[in-house]
Structure to design on (1221 residues):
C-alpha cells in the first residue's frame, strides 16, 4: 500500500510537471522575433549573406519556423525580393541565408529585414508573424575607392548563353558616359543618379582571355572596365568506354568535347569513379584514364566519369564485364620463314592475356594493296602459318591481328611484314613476230618480241636466246644471246627456210620457246587492199578466213604516222578469229594507219592475207596541191598537180574541187556549178570525184580574159583550206597568127640589111657616087678650049677675108679662138660674142663704103638690116656646128659651110635658121667684155659670111646694157680681101 | 624610403650576379664597332611592337580603337630618352642592363598570355644583355677613365604593392608596360646611334652646345642627373611610326 502511494504521488508530480511544461511552451504566445541580424556582402558571388538568431527559444526547444525576408534596393520602400525561409530552429542557433543578386551589389545599397512565424504542428496556435526586424543596410559602395568611375561585376565567370547584368557607378554625375562590349557600344537603364545597369543577354564565348566590357567618360578620358569570363558550356563526355589489353589495366577513353578553360577557370577536370569498389581516381588527361584492375577477381565494373568545372558537372556511366572488354595488344615479331617461289611460312608472337588464354589471329596476305588471302589461326603465344599459291618473284605484305577468343571485343592493331617470293623460270614463251625485207640483195628478217608480263616472267629477264635452224639443209644451229631489255634483233639469211626459236631467260632458267618459220622470200605478194573504219575503241579489223589449215592470224601495224619510223606492233589471234579490234593509246586522229593481216600456217610460216588502211578519225586536208598551169590558149588551159600525195593526207582523198572565177558577167560553164566562197565571192566549182585524176583542162574560156583558179582536195570531212587564187590571162585569138607572120618578115628584113651593109660600097657607087672634081671635069676642058681661055674656077681658098667677127652667146662651152690661141673660160662668155670679119691693117684705108655680099637666104628679120652697121644677134651655131667651133679648123669649116650655103646650097631643112652675114665693124666695143687683146675697130667689112643661128635666139635682141663679150680674131693668112 | 632602399639592395645584388653570370658564360668580341652595330640592331629589333605589344593586344582583345588609346606607357615606368642621353656610357649600360633585367622578370609573368613571343623576346633580351656586358668590358678596358657612376634606379617595372587589381586593370597594366618597353628600346637605339665610331669619347654621349651656339649639337641640359627625367609626354607610335 505504501508502495502504491509512492507511485501515485510520483505520477501526480510528473503529470503536474508536464502540465507545467505544456503550459509554458505551447500555451504561451510566442514572440520569436529574429534577432542579431547581420548582413554581409560577398562580391565574388554577388551574394548577400544573412545571419541571425532566435533568442526566445527555451532550452532544448526545437521548432520549425518560417522566416520571411524582405530585400529592398536603394531605399527600404523599394522591395525587390521577398522570400520565406523555413527551417528548424534550436535555441541559440545562428541561422544563415544567402541571396544572390543579379545586379552587382557594388552598384546599389540593399536593405534587409525579416520576421518569423512558428510553423510547428505541435503548437496549434502558432500561426501569427512576429514583428519585423529593423532594416539592415548592405552597401558595398562604401568599399570603393575614390576613382571617378567603376564598372561591376569584376571578373565574373558565367557560362555561354547566360544573361549578365553589368552596372557602372559614376562619382562624377555626368551623362556622357559610354559603355562598350568588345568595342561595340551598349545601352543600359539608369537605376540611380549615378548608377546605370546593362543587361547582356545570351553572352557568347569570345576568347579565353575574357570579354572586355568598359565604360569611358567623354571628358577626361576616364576609363573603367571589367573582364567578363564567358565559359563554354561543359559538355557530357561522349564515346566513353573502357577496355583492357592484359586483364590488369583498364583504359577508359572518351571524347571530352570543348575545352572550357579560361584565364579565370582551368579546363574541366575528369574523375573516374567505380561504384562497386567505391574507388575514385582523378584523370590526368582530358580524354583517357587508366584504372588498375583489382586483384580480387572483380569481373563487373560500373564506371562513372565525372567532368566538372567551376560552373557545372557532367557525368556518364558504363557497366561492363572485364573479360568482354579485352582488346589484345598488337602482335609482334612477324617474320617470313622458308620463302620459296610459291610459298612462305609466316611466324609471329602475341602478348599473353591472363593464364592460358587463347587468341584468334587473322593472317592476311596482300599484294598491290589488295587482300588476296585471309587465314584465321588460334594460338596462345606463338603463331605460324604456311602461305601457298604465291606468285614467284612477287612482293607480298603479310599482316596479323588478334582478338580475345573467349569474348570477341576488338581486333588488335595489325602488324605488317613485307617479303618477296623467289624467282622461277618464265612460264610463257615470248610473243615473237618478224618483218622480212631485202637488204643489199639478202633477205633479212627483223625479229621482234614483247617483254614477258610480270606474271609470266617469274623474275627478272636477263637475256633472250635466238636459235636459228635451217630447214632446207642440215646445218649447225646458230644461237644468239641478246641481253635484256632488247626487244628485237636482225638476222641476214639466204633463200632457205629457217625455223627460229626465241626463249627468255631469268636467273632460274629459260621460258618455253616461241617458234617462227621464215623463208628467203620477202613475200611482197599483191594482196587485197581495203579500208578499215576507226572508232572510239580503235580499229575494227576483219578479214576473210584463210582457206586451209591456219593455226592463227597476226595483225600487224605501225603505231606512228607514216613519216615516222615504224614501231612495229602486232596482235596474235586464234585460228577461228576473223576480226578484232586494234586499240592503242598511240592512235591519233588524222593519221593513216596501215594494217596487214597474216595467216599462220601449220608450218608456223606467215602469209600476207590482206592490207587495210584507215583513220581513227578522218580530218579535212590540211594543205592544197601545188598546181601547175600549162597549155594556155585563148580558150583553155590545163591544170595539173601530179606531185600531190593522197597517201599522207589526214583522210581518204575523195576527189578535188576546182574553183574558177570567171570574168565579170560571165556565167559558169555547164560542167561547173555556181558556189559562194566564204568571203562572199561567187565562183564556179568543178568537182573531180576521182582522187587519182590530177589534171584538169579548163575550157570554153574567153580570149583576152583574166581568170582565177584554185584547186583543193576533199575528204569525207571536208575540203582543204581556202588558199589564194591564181590568176591567168587568156591570150588574143589572132596573136599567134601575127607572130607567125611578123617573125619571118623581121628575119627577112634583117637579111636584107646585112646584105646591104656588105654591099654598101657597091651601092654607093651605083646610087650616090662622089661629086666630080670640076678641074677634072670634061666640061671645063671644053669651055677652056672653045669660049674663054681665061675662064677659070674660083677657089674659095683664094679669097682672103679681111676680118672675121665671131658673134656667139656663151652657153658654157669653151671656145678657143684663132687669133689669140687662147682659151676663154665660161665666165668670159657671159656676153654675146661677135665674129667680125675685119680688113687687115695694110689694106685698111679708113672709112669707106662697105661692100656687102647679099645673101638671100637671110630671114626677114635679118635682112631688114641691110646696112653694114652692128646689129647684135645672139650667135648660136646649129647643133652640128656648135661643137666643132671649139677648134680653129672646125671654125673654118663652119665658115666655109656658111659660105657655101650662101651660094644657094642651103638645104631646105635649115630654112628655120638665121644666117648672119658679115657685119659692119663695131662702132663701140663693150670695153668691159673685151678680151685682153681686143681687135682693132673696123668701120666696115667687105666680106660677109653668114652663120647659122637658131631662130629663137635670133629673135631675141640683146638689151642695151647687157654685157656681151666681143672678141676679134686676127690672122694674116685668114683675111679675105 | 628606407623600405624602398631595402628592397633595392637585394635587387641590385641579384642584377649584379646576373650581370656577372652573363659575363662568365659569354665570350666577348673585342671589336667595338662590331659590338655597337649588334647593339643597334638588337635595339631596333626589340623596339618592334609586332614582337610583343601587338600580339598581346590582339590576344587580350585590347586592339579596339577605344582601348588602344588607353594602352599608353605609364609615365616614369622607363627611363626617358633624355635621361639616357644624360648618362655616361658606363652608366647608360648599367641602367640598360638593370632595366632589362626587370623587364625579363616582368615578362615571365606574361608567359601565360604570350608563351611563344615571351620566349623569343626573353632570348633577345638575354642576348642584348650579353652584348651590354661585353661593351661595358670594352669601355672599361679603354683609356676612358670614368668615375664610376651609380646605376640609375629603375623605378618602373616593379610597381609598389597595391591591392589586387581586377583582370581588366591587369590587362591595361601589362599593355602599358609593353608599350613602355618598346618605347624604351627605341630610345636606347637612338642613344646608341649617337655613339661614335670610336670608343674613346667624352663622358657624355654627344657634345652639347652652349646656349648661343648654333651648331647642330644637342643643347646643354642642366640637372639631368639631379632628377630622374622620365618621359611624360611621349607616346608609343604604331610600328613603323616610331620617332626617329
Amino acid at each position: 500500500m505504501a508502495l502504491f502511494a509512492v507511485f501515485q504521488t510520483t505520477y501526480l508530480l510528473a503529470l503536474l510537471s508536464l502540465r507545467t511544461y505544456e503550459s509554458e511552451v505551447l500555451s504561451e504566445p510566442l514572440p520569436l522575433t529574429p534577432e542579431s541580424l547581420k548582413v554581409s556582402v560577398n562580391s565574388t558571388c554577388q551574394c548577400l549573406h544573412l545571419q541571425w538568431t532566435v533568442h526566445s527559444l527555451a532550452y532544448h526547444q526545437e521548432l520549425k519556423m518560417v522566416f520571411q525576408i524582405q530585400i529592398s534596393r536603394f531605399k527600404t520602400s523599394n522591395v525587390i525580393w521577398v522570400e520565406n525561409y523555413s527551417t528548424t530552429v534550436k535555441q541559440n542557433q545562428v541561422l544563415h541565408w544567402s541571396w544572390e543578386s543579379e545586379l552587382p551589389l557594388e552598384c546599389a545599397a540593399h536593405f534587409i529585414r525579416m520576421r518569423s512565424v512558428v510553423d510547428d504542428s505541435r503548437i496549434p496556435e502558432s500561426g501569427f508573424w512576429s514583428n519585423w526586424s529593423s532594416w539592415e543596410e548592405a552597401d558595398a559602395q562604401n568599399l570603393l575607392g575614390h576613382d571617378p568611375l567603376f564598372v561591376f561585376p569584376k571578373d565574373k565567370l558565367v557560362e555561354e548563353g547566360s544573361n549578365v547584368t553589368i552596372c557602372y557607378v559614376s562619382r562624377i554625375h555626368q551623362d556622357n558616359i559610354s559603355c562598350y562590349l568588345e568595342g561595340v557600344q551598349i545601352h543600359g537603364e539608369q537605376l540611380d543618379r549615378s548608377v546605370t545597369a546593362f543587361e547582356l543577354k545570351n553572352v557568347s564565348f569570345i576568347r579565353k582571355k575574357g570579354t572586355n566590357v568598359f565604360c569611358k567618360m567623354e571628358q577626361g578620358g576616364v576609363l573603367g572596365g571589367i573582364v567578363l569570363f564567358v565559359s563554354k558550356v561543359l559538355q557530357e563526355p561522349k564515346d566513353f568506354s573502357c577496355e583492357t589489353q592484359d586483364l590488369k589495366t583498364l583504359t577508359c577513353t572518351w571524347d571530352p568535347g570543348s575545352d572550357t578553360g579560361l584565364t579565370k577557370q582551368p579546363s574541366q577536370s575528369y574523375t573516374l569513379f567505380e561504384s562497386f569498389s567505391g574507388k575514385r581516381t582523378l584523370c590526368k588527361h582530358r580524354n583517357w584514364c587508366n584504372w588498375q584492375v583489382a586483384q580480387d577477381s572483380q569481373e563487373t565494373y560500373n564506371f562513372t566519369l565525372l567532368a566538372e568545372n567551376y560552373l557545372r558537372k557532367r557525368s556518364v556511366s558504363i557497366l561492363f564485364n572485364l573479360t568482354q572488354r579485352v582488346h589484345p595488344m598488337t602482335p609482334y615479331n612477324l617474320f617470313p620463314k622458308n620463302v620459296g617461289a610459291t610459298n612462305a611460312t609466316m611466324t609471329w608472337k602475341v602478348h599473353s592475356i591472363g593464364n592460358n588464354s587463347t587468341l584468334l589471329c587473322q593472317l592476311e596476305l596482300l599484294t598491290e594493296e589488295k587482300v588476296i588471302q585471309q587465314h584465321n589461326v588460334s594460338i596462345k603465344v606463338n603463331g605460324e602459318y604456311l602461305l601457298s599459291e604465291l606468285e614467284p618473284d612477287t612482293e607480298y605484305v603479310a599482316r596479323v591481328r588478334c582478338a580475345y577468343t573467349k569474348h570477341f571485343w576488338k581486333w588488335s592493331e595489325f602488324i605488317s611484314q613485307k617479303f618477296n617470293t623467289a624467282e622461277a623460270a618464265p612460264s610463257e614463251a615470248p610473243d615473237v613476230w618478224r618483218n622480212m625485207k631485202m637488204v643489199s640483195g639478202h633477205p633479212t628478217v627483223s625479229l621482234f618480241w614483247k617483254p614477258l608480263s610480270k606474271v609470266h616472267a617469274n623474275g627478272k629477264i636477263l637475256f633472250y636466246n635466238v636459235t636459228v635452224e635451217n630447214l632446207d639443209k642440215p646445218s649447225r644451229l646458230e644461237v644468239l644471246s641478246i641481253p635484256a631489255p632488247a626487244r628485237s634483233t636482225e638476222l641476214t639469211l639466204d633463200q632457205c627456210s629457217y625455223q627460229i626459236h626465241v626463249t627468255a631467260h631469268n636467273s632460274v632458267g629459260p621460258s618455253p620457246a616461241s617458234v617462227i618459220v621464215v623463208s628467203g622470200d620477202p613475200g611482197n605478194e599483191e594482196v587485197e587492199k581495203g579500208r578499215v573504219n576507226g572508232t572510239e575503241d580503235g580499229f575494227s579489223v576483219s578479214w576473210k578466213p584463210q582457206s586451209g589449215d591456219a593455226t592463227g592470224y597476226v595483225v600487224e601495224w605501225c603505231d606512228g604516222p607514216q613519216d615516222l619510223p615504224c614501231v612495229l606492233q602486232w596482235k596474235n589471234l586464234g585460228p577461228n578469229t576473223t576480226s578484232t579490234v586494234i586499240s592503242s593509246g598511240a592512235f591519233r586522229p588524222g593519221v593513216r594507219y596501215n594494217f596487214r593481216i597474216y595467216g599462220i600456217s601449220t608450218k608456223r610460216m606467215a602469209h600476207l592475207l590482206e592490207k587495210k588502211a584507215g583513220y581513227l578519225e578522218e580530218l579535212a586536208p590540211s594543205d592544197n596541191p601545188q598546181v601547175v598551169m600549162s597549155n594556155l590558149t585563148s580558150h583553155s588551159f590545163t591544170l595539173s598537180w601530179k606531185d600531190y600525195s593522197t597517201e599522207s593526207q589526214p583522210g581518204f582523198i575523195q576527189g578535188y574541187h576546182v574553183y574558177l572565177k570567171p570574168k565579170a558577167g560571165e556565167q559558169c560553164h555547164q560542167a561547173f556549178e555556181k558556189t559562194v566562197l566564204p568571203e562572199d565571192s561567187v565562183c564556179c566549182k568543178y568537182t573531180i570525184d576521182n582522187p587519182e585524176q590530177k589534171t584538169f583542162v579548163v575550157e570554153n574560156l574567153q580570149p583576152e580574159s583574166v581568170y582565177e583558179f584554185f584547186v583543193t582536195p576533199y575528204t569525207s570531212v571536208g575540203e582543204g583550206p581556202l588558199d589564194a587564187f591564181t590568176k591567168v590571162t587568156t591570150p588574143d585569138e589572132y596573136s599567134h597568127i601575127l607572130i607567125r607572120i611578123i617573125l619571118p618578115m623581121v628575119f627577112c628584113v634583117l637579111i636584107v640589111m646585112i646584105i646591104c651593109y656588105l654591099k654598101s660600097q657597091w651601092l654607093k657607087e651605083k646610087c650616090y657616087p662622089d661629086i666630080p672634081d670640076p678641074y677634072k671635069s670634061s666640061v671645063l676642058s671644053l669651055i677652056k678650049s672653045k669660049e674663054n681661055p681665061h675662064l677659070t674656077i674660083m677657089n674659095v681658098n683664094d679669097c682672103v677675108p679681111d676680118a672675121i667677127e665671131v658673134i656667139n652667146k656663151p652657153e658654157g662651152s669653151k671656145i678657143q679662138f684663132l687669133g689669140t690661141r687662147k682659151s676663154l673660160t665660161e665666165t668670159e662668155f657671159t656676153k654675146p660674142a661677135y665674129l667680125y670679119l675685119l680688113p687687115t691693117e695694110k689694106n685698111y684705108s679708113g672709112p669707106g663704103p662697105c661692100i656687102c655680099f647679099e645673101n638671100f637666104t637671110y630671114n626677114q628679120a635679118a635682112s631688114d638690116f641691110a646696112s653694114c652697121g652692128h646689129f647684135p644677134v645672139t650667135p648660136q651655131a646649129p647643133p652640128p656646128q656648135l661643137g666643132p667651133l671649139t677648134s680653129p679648123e672646125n671654125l673654118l669649116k663652119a665658115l666655109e659651110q656658111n659660105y657655101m650655103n650662101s651660094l644657094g646650097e642651103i638645104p631646105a631643112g635649115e630654112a628655120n635658121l638665121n644666117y648672119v652675114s658679115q657685119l659692119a665693124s663695131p662702132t663701140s666695143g663693150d670695153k668691159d667684155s673685151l678680151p685682153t687683146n681686143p681687135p682693132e675697130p673696123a668701120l666696115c667689112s667687105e666680106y660677109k659670111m653668114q652663120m647659122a643661128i637658131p631662130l629663137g635666139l635670133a629673135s631675141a635682141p640683146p638689151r642695151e646694157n647687157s654685157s656681151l663679150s666681143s672678141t676679134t680674131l686676127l690672122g694674116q693668112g685668114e683675111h679675105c680681101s | 624610403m628606407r623600405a624602398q632602399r631595402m628592397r633595392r639592395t637585394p635587387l641590385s645584388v641579384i642584377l649584379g650576379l646576373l650581370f656577372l653570370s652573363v659575363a662568365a658564360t659569354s665570350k666577348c668580341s673585342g671589336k667595338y664597332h662590331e659590338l655597337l652595330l649588334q647593339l643597334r640592331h638588337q635595339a631596333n629589333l626589340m623596339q618592334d611592337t609586332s614582337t610583343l605589344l601587338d600580339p598581346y593586344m590582339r590576344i587580350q582583345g585590347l586592339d579596339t580603337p577605344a582601348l588602344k588609346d588607353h594602352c599608353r606607357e605609364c609615365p616614369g615606368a622607363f627611363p626617358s630618352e633624355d635621361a639616357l642621353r644624360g648618362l655616361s656610357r658606363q652608366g647608360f649600360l648599367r641602367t640598360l642592363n638593370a632595366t632589362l633585367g626587370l623587364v625579363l622578370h616582368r615578362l615571365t609573368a606574361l608567359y601565360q598570355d604570350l608563351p611563344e613571343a615571351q620566349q623569343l623576346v626573353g632570348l633577345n633580351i638575354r642576348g642584348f644583355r650579353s652584348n651590354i656586358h661585353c661593351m661595358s668590358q670594352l669601355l672599361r678596358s679603354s683609356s676612358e677613365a670614368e668615375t664610376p657612376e651609380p646605376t640609375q634606379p629603375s623605378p618602373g617595372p616593379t610597381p609598389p604593392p597595391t591591392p589586387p587589381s581586377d583582370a581588366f586593370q591587369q590587362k591595361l597594366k601589362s599593355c602599358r608596360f609593353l608599350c613602355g618597353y618598346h618605347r624604351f628600346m627605341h630610345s636606347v637605339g637612338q642613344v646608341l646611334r649617337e655613339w661614335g665610331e670610336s670608343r674613346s669619347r667624352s663622358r657624355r654621349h654627344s657634345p652639347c652646345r652652349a646656349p648661343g651656339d648654333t651648331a647642330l649639337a644637342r643643347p646643354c641640359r642642366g640637372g639631368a642627373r639631379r632628377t630622374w627625367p622620365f618621359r611624360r609626354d611621349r607616346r608609343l607610335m604604331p610600328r613603323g611610326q616610331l620617332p626617329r
